[in-house]
Please model this.
Amino acid sequence: MVDPGYKGYSFTLSELKYLRSGKYVCPRCGGQMEKEKYSAEVSHEVFDTSVIHANYTVTQYKYRFRCGSCGEVFELEELVPPKKHSPMVRKITRVIVIIAIIAVLMSVMIGSLL
Ligand SMILES: [Zn+2]
Model:
């Protein structure tokens, strides 16, 4: 029996956001990039083997982006790096924590004065 196989997409939330933004700017030269759809056969081992068996053909649709200016091709994963807090975000978080501590100390001081 020939397995019908599995066809599908697999995106992270940030990848979907990038796809839906419609603004594909080349990270190398800043040129406009074109979206290309292609399919790739993916090893079944990356999936839950209790659901997809060894003889399944797993076809995964993927997107890549080709720059119209320099011709460079980027995979979607390359353009959407895994979410990391930038040093700026960390700095702002630290400032908010300090303000909160000061506010608590102030209210305690004011409370002891009254
Ligand atoms: Zn480019």
